[in-house]
Predict the structure.
Amino acid sequence: MTDLEPAADNLTTLESHILSEETRHPGATGAFSWILAAMTLSAKIIASKIRRARIEDVLGTLGSKNITGDTQQKLDVIANETLLRALGTRAGVAVLASEENEQPIILQTKVDRPYCVLFDPLDGSSNLDACVSVGTIFSILRHDTQADPIEISILQPGTKQIAAGYMLYGSSCVFVLTTGHGVNLFVLDPAVGAFILVQENLRVPESAKSYSINEAYRADFPAGYQRYLDWVHGQRYSSRYIGTMVADIHRILVQGGVFMYPPTKAHPQGKLRLMYEANPMAMIVEQAGGKAVAGTQRILDIQPTGLHERTPVIMGSAAEVDHVLRHVKAAGAE
Ligand code: AHM
Ligand code: MG
């Protein structure tokens, strides 16, 4: 180790980690760091609101639905407003798009605002009343200054993401981030209010006998998924389904397995949103060495046509995704 290299047991916050990454890019303006600072601030505020939700009487539904027909929880709106307020003040953000808002918010069209930030403010929010983990998912794209209308700037395939991450509000509050060079895991130390790096270059196990799907919809799934379920029941696998995508994928990143949300009769294109959920989680899973596909196509290759479009999702350990695909393809050929 030279004098300049950090020791393995050094304490590093998320902010200092990003600053040190930025020194590797001589042309960096710092705009990206400011966006991540907004995300960590939002995470701390949302985590604290969730912890106090029962006391402050902000659990439960609002009685309204969002643009894609989901019942809005009070905390969906609080989390959304927190992110909009934290990100809306950052130079470096051109466009914001939220799962909770029908239209993207255009902040600037100038070249000095080079990023678009997309987010699902509170994934799994219907679990909140039961004190089950929920999360925030985000995706960062470079703003296309030539896009006309400007909204088109957001409709880029997942391969174009500059960064993606999620915050999971569970038994601890974690922040998982990729900027395209592996996946890093930070944990909030509530005593000092900082996200501390706890694992660099997180790798999803190559295989693990665990699958995650809402099996109650089995009769509605395409034949390939039913075929996979028949197969997996004979293989001594465990079934684990939290019903919060970000929590199910986090478990798989750490312990391995496969997560699926196939097309159903209620959601013929799948339930999960491509831009706010599938793309950022797919980038993270791939960066951790796993696979993420939408039936037969790689999720990150999908060319989006609408901001709120949905996609089927199969993602996790490479070998486990392959098992699902084997059955999906075999059913297609039958
Ligand atoms: P949300 O963004 O409105 O919370 O919906 C997405 C959630 C995912 O977190 C989870 O995987 C899925 O919906 C669960 O759906 P279901 O209850 O149909 O299994
Ligand atoms: Mg969601």
Notes: Residues 34 and 90 are 7 Å apart (CA to CA). The first strand starts at residue 61 and ends at 65.
